[in-house]
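User: Predict the structure for this protein chain, please.
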Amino acid sequence: DVQLQASGGGLVQPGGSLRLSCVTSGFIFPNYAMHWNRQTPGKGLEEVSYINAWGDSTSYADSVKGRFTATRDNRKNTLYLQMDNLQPEDTGMYYCSWAGRRGQGTQVTVSS
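Assistant: Here is the predicted structure, written as structure tokens:
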């Protein structure tokens, strides 16, 4: 049974930081690329980041480039998203995804 459990969200002021984690199980994590997606009010589902299986190649949505960093620990089957200089438009539900499957998300709210 595939599990994709995101955590680390919360309420943060504009300009603040959060680090999301996604613990996975049920598939061979080191063999696969992974994605972070988010569902934001009024914008629908958006892919935020991509990271390859080795963790040495990443790509980001233009809206988060330079502020978000995706990493992974293949020994721990865990994906991370470091989010810096958060802005109100980053508010939404964040999910990690594998092979088109989304796990349980974590809410990020950016507000003063």
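The mean pLDDT is 96.
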